[in-house]
Specification:
Helix content: 40-55%
CATH architecture of the domain at 54-225: Alpha-Beta Complex
CATH topology of the domain at 54-225: inorganic pyrophosphatase (n-terminal core)
Largest sheet: 5 strands, parallel
Number of helices: 21
Number of strands: 20
Radius of gyration: 26 Å
Strand content: 15-25%
Strand order of the largest sheet: 3-2-4-5-8
Length: 590
């Protein structure tokens, strides 16, 4: 019972012909860029470029120069510094970038990464107490710290200097006049582009890029070779994709350049992981869906320190063993996720049925590993186009994660039921909480009674770039589309559509014959073949419901039939026996 889809055609206008002539690229490519807001000669030049020199100056980040100078001064004068990172890919890589560089200045540098389950997110008092006991007098946070106002004061009571680098939203309270008052920790330096008075022109950078910028200033202070600094860009690229930052502005340049460095990375651990995962021609997809999940899996199921150990490893044999272990952990995480997802679907469908009709799904999976609750919530949200909370048993209470849809501000709605939760926090699209088991049902009922969502908002919106027949799909177009890479958040893969497609033949393909192959004819009578990697059973049921058994039989046997489809597709190049062939991959049909 998947959610209904709403197909929307982008309809942005621009001087397609003029820009096409100016940049000597097709009007199709110009239309795709205009659809992404890249609609002036200046923006197009920047979008197509990859000049690292055009990145924003790190000196524009409030307190970045101050932080860099404090770090260098502390290490040069014999002080000891501890980096406190985070257990996700962004946090691990931020820690790596800082540690790798600061160890060049002094050996009095170490790191800790909080345990996801025992410590939770960010720096806490026990981490500070341990630092004091170990004789540490300087703490440098990365990918966390902006919410650590109380912990910063506690550290200072222990005579520990706090330097914060982060990228998360600055927390606030509502004052008596109903206005926001931002709460910024009173650390010696706070580097975060989200601060209101920070002049940095591009706010949507990840924690590793914030750390990378601070390190850039340190390289200048220390006079280290800048080609070494540029080489660190490959790590910032991984973190940018894994933390789902939009691939626009300088993020796009970092990822584009970082991918080139990763093709021939000099990092022994990363090289071993790339090899273990069987990656060739590395792309942003591999960063987000192969490399990143392996790094994240260590923090989810065991310790994020394993992923950091791999990045720091310089022994090929040991790196091979570590990368094998990370891949195995990620394979295990996939199994756990799939198992939990199937159970969650059963519960979700019972809540969506007409008698219950929940618009907000609150799903209790007591045996689900709490580290994958957010992944499961995200997949359920995609399937049913509803806000979702997945809750599981923690050591002292139930814990969970939520994922939302655009029209529902999850964090704001949760505040209405603060009395039912022990702890909660988050953003409009994602949140986390802990709650007593007996309060789960009142929480679910309350959210549904006050949700205010209309039925038409519970659909998956699919945005189409261009309606285009098969006649325009050729090798030249597919190669030209590579100019738009890397694809990701904010710079999604182009989606093309055709309507009124006649089905000439349908067959099953794949090792287990579970995917779809179609021979089709478009409205201009061009015959072409297409594949779709959605389940055959789903497609056949769809045809049976709309056309009947006879028409499905005719399709399967290449006979004339009355089936007509609209499709959303992506053109690709496939290699077979050394020859490249253009193929059409269907993502959606109706």
């Amino acid at each position: 019972m998947k959610a209904a889809e709403k197909w929307v055609l982008r309809n942005r206008t621009g001087d397609f012909k003029g820009l096409s002539d100016r940049f000597n690229i097709s009007e199709i490519l110009i239309r795709l860029m205009v659809n992404r807001g890249v609609d002036t000669p200046e923006k197009i030049s920047a979008y197509l470029g990859e000049d690292m020199g055009s990145l924003n100056s790190p000196y524009l980040l409030k307190d970045a120069k101050k932080a860099a100078e404090l770090i260098v001064d502390r290490l040069r004068t014999g002080h000891s510094l501890r980096i406190v990172g985070d257990y996700d890919a962004d946090g691990v890589i931020s820690t790596y970038i800082l540690y790798k560089t600061l160890r060049k200045i002094s050996t009095n540098v170490d790191y800790v990464i909080p345990d996801r389950i025992n410590d939770g997110y960010g720096i806490n008092n026990s981490i500070i107490e341990k630092a004091a006991a170990d004789g540490i007098d300087t703490i440098l946070t990365c990918d966390n710290g902006i919410s650590a106002a109380e912990q910063t004061l506690f550290a200072q009571e222990k005579n520990i200097m706090m330097i914060i680098t982060d990228h998360h939203d600055v927390p606030f309270v509502i004052n008596s006049e109903g206005n926001k008052e931002y709460v910024i920790p009173k650390a010696q330096a706070v580097v975060n582009p989200k601060q209101e008075d920070c002049p940095y022109p591009y706010k949507n950078i990840c924690g590793a890029v914030v750390a990378y910028k601070v390190i850039g200033i340190i390289y200048e202070i220390m006079g280290y070779p800048m080609d070494e600094y540029v080489n660190l860009c490959q790590y910032a690229a991984i973190a940018t994709v894994c933390d789902v930052m939009e691939l626009l502005d300088e993020n796009r340049i970092i990822v584009k350049h970082g991918l080139k460095l990763l093709e021939h990375t000099d990092n022994v651990g990363l090289s071993a992981l790339i090899k273990e995962c069987g990656i060739k021609n590395i792309s942003a997809y591999h960063l987000g869906f192969v490399i990143g999940p392996c790094i994240n899996a260590s923090g989810r199921l065991e310790s994020a320190l394993k992923a950091l150990e791999l990045l720091l490893c310089e022994d090929e044999k040991k790196a091979g063993l570590l990368s094998k272990n990370l891949k195995e952990l990620n394979d295990r995480r996939k199994e756990l996720t799939e198992e939990a997802f199937k159970k969650a679907c059963v519960i979700a469908e019972s809540f969506i049925e007409e008698k219950v009709n929940d618009k907000i799904l609150v799903i209790y999976l007591p045996e689900c590993h709490e580290s994958i609750a957010g992944i499961v919530a995200g997949r359920i949200k995609e399937r049913y186009a509803r806000p979702v909370f997945v809750l599981t048993d923690g050591s002292e209470s139930c814990k969970g994660s939520g994922r939302s849809i655009e029209s529902y501000n999850m964090a704001e709605k949760m505040r209405e039921y603060a009395n039912l939760m022990l702890h909660f926090g988050g953003h409009p699209m994602a949140a986390g909480l802990s709650i007593r088991k007996e309060n789960i049902e009142p929480f679910r009922n309350g959210l549904n009674e006050s949700c205010g969502l209309a039925r038409e908002e519970l659909t998956n919106k699919v945005t189409i770039d261009i309606e285009m027949t098969a006649a325009f799909v050729n090798k030249g177009l597919v190669n030209e589309l590579k100019l738009l890479e890397p694809f990701g958040t904010g710079n999604e893969k182009p989606k093309f559509a055709m309507r009124g497609i006649k089905v000439l033949r349908y067959s099953r393909i794949g090792k287990e014959r579970k995917f779809i192959k179609l021979r089709l004819m478009d409205s201009c009578n061009v015959i072409f073949e297409a594949v779709c990697f959605r389940p055959c059973e789903e497609f056949e049921q769809y045809i049976l419901e709309r056309y009947g058994e006879d028409e499905l039989y005719k399709m399967e046997n290449g006979m004339d039939n009355s089936v007509s489809l609209s499709i959303i597709y992506e053109p690709k190049l496939d290699e077979f026996r050394g020859e490249e062939k253009v193929s059409i991959n269907i993502s959606n049909y109706r």
